[in-house]
Design goal:
- This protein is mainly alpha-helical and 423 residues long.
- The protein contains 19 helices and no strands.
Length: 423
Amino acid sequence: MNEKIEPVLQEKRTFSGADFFILWSGAAVSLAEIWAGGLLVPMGFAAGLAAILIGHAVGNIPLALGGIIGSRTGLPTMAIVRPSFGIRGSQIAAFLNIIQLVGWTGVMLWIAAQAAQAVFPLPGFRWWVVIAGIITVAWAMVGSRYWKWLQRIAVTGLIVLCVLMTYVVFSKYGLKSLAAIQPKSPMPFMVGLDIVIAMPISWLPLVCDYSRFARSAGSAFWGTWTGYFLIGSWMYALGLGAALATSSVTPESMALDLMVKMGLLFPAIIIILLSTFTTTFLDIYSAAVSALNIRPKLGERFSSIVCGVLGIAVAMIFPATSYEGFLLLVGSVFCPLFGVVLADFFILRGGNYSGGSAIEGITGFRRGINTWAFAAWLIGLILYHVLQKTTSAGSSIPSLLAAGICYLLFMKYLHVKRAQEGK
């Protein structure tokens, strides 16, 4: 595994489209996705399902586009932030990413522990947090050479088990009865859409950490988009259906409890544990890679252990009621940030970072920070929260586009003008 911010050697870029399909299917086969689907209950089944499909289709586009940058450069995500934000600017982004990834690790371990405790009680759910946390850290540390084999085995088994869980839920309650349930406090469609889009967007700060191992940009794009779209939509729909049928705020536990009542205890436990490992190891590993962008000498293994321990600590105190707010907060930070990054790579630089620009950063930024990039990001961030509070028209994609457009305008007219004036 690379311990410096350097491109992955061509001979080590071995991931195929199928490998990325499996990798991102594993990220989507998540209890958190099932839980998030339950947040859409106020929309009703038909509108909620529409938001799920549209949200994943839209949100996966920037996710997969971000993966193209990693596959073309061979660099992790926080390194490809350098050309637009500057070296020190990318360190700020890396710090924010570490915070959200440790938070996600805590969220995932907490959800897994609660679900496991519900079907197989131990003396306190925290034992499940520790067990799941230790195995997930080990999974993250084995390296890219073994991930695709672990993921192939685990995700294939998970999909089979999730087919069983889906059958249990929908055969119990039926599609017609779910569609007939009327929400008491309707949720605006675009607000629900933001909740869905926030999930694939939350993976944007990680995507290049894995796409840098791709054989080709096309395989990384389509494997990422298809895997996350199909499985993510499925898990959201499962959570929506389960929550609608039972009015449960923890639909993932309810679905698993149904399996236990049908004598399927062992499959339920396997779903809980494997879905945690295949998703959460991505958070831990990428938090470690982001730490290397700040302090390369730390090393991936040491950073993985530290980030995993912090995630376990967060899981011990994580409040379930803040999950929706956490999703939207992640979206508000990283939608505009990657609006800037995508605009820089695909439009300003024509889809290519030449030479060592992505490793060493672009010269000419005062103190290693491109203030124009941060100005554009701040505009997108503010717009996201303004739209959240004042309208139901949605905020994820508008903030991403606004930040990207502002960045292009700033760089074309203000940055170039200042450079010409010698300021």
